[in-house]
Specification:
By secondary structure, the protein is an alpha/beta fold. The protein has ten helices and seven strands. The chain has one domain: 3-Layer(aba) Sandwich (Rossmann fold), CATH 3.40.50. Helix 1 crosses helix 8 and helix 3 runs parallel beside helix 4. The structure holds nicotinamide-adenine-dinucleotide.
């Protein structure tokens, strides 16, 4: 059964809220009537800059590393005691680390931010939502988690893990009244990739503005949709992958050759 999320009067937490998609999610939540928007980011200054854009909602800012379970547990406790029950947790922080196979540090950071951080949200936020019989968890993965990222193995692999975890949580917690959604965009015009390319993504899709991604996300959350695809083409790419893996891999090899040329 789809669990719909409505921002009106809600308490929303956004990790990675100091930039890009996270900032747009926070601003959108505030504009749509959230009672409070909590911005979590390792960059306190940018998190504050996001909070400053929120004129209608109460705000709180936490400078924290999402890979730190104790820090996340503390934030959850503080928000629930001081502000109110969390209606939507956007587990959104991300990093694009590692060229090719990447270095051990790239894997450590990518696993931390794209896997462990979501597990922390599942461990510290979801049980409180289960106890109330309502709440929504949004995991920002990536189209790279459904397809691949020909440039970075740590990114591709850990984003697949993020999708898998979101699916697992949806399977296990739907009956508890919990909505789980997985946001899987392709290129979005943010700090993460502005230095890498501009114009069209390697897949030939357009880069989207973070605001457009946030608007699609809140539409999908209202409908209780699990997989949120701001680039709708990704659905057909995923079908091609599942329908004929050999042909899909051949196409991806051609894409990798174009990107590295
Ligand atoms: N930009 C894209 O093209 C794109 C495409 C698909 C998915 N995504 C995903 O969207 C999410 C948001 O990315 P973005 O494009 O807005 O990037 P961004 O770089 O603009 O923002 C990421 C934010 O996460 C924060 N962050 C990173 N590591 C952190 C940590 N350990 N603890 C706390 N905060 C941390 C950063 O400080 C930054 O404010 C990421 O999960 C990313 O992988 C982005």
């Amino acid at each position: 059964m789809p669990h719909s999320f409505s921002p009106a009067d809600s308490v929303v937490v956004v990790t990675g809220g100091g930039s890009g998609i996270g900032r747009a999610l926070a601003v959108h939540a505030g504009a749509e009537g959230a009672r409070a928007v909590v911005v979590v980011d390792r960059d306190e200054g940018e998190a504050r800059a996001t909070a400053d854009r929120l004129t209608r909602a109460a705000t709180a800012v936490f400078a924290a590393d999402v890979t730190d379970g104790a820090a996340i547990a503390g934030i959850v406790e503080h928000v629930e005691e001081e502000i109110g029950p969390i209606d939507l947790w956007c587990s959104n922080a991300g990093v694009h680390r590692g060229e090719g196979l990447g270095q051990p540090a790239d894997w450590e950071i990518s696993v931390g931010v794209h896997v462990r951080a979501h597990v922390h949200a599942a461990r510290y936020v979801v049980p409180r939502m289960v106890a109330r019989g309502r709440g929504t968890l949004l995991v920002t993965a990536s189209a790279a988690g459904l397809l691949s990222d020909v440039e970075s193995a740590p990114y591709a692999v850990t984003k697949h893990a993020a999708v898998a975890l979101a699916e697992w949580l949806s399977i296990r917690h739907d009956d508890d009244g919990i909505g789980v959604s997985c946001l899987a965009p392709q290129g979005v015009k943010t700090a993460m990739n502005s230095a890498r390319r501009d114009g069209r993504t390697g897949f030939g899709t357009d880069y989207l503005e973070p605001d457009a991604v946030a608007a699609k996300t809140f539409e999908a959350l209202a409908a209780g949709t699990f997989l949120i695809l701001p680039h709708p083409e990704v659905a057909s790419y995923e079908q091609r992958r599942a329908g004929n893996r050999e042909r899909w891999l051949a196409g991806m090899r051609r894409l990798a050759a174009r990107v590295s040329a």
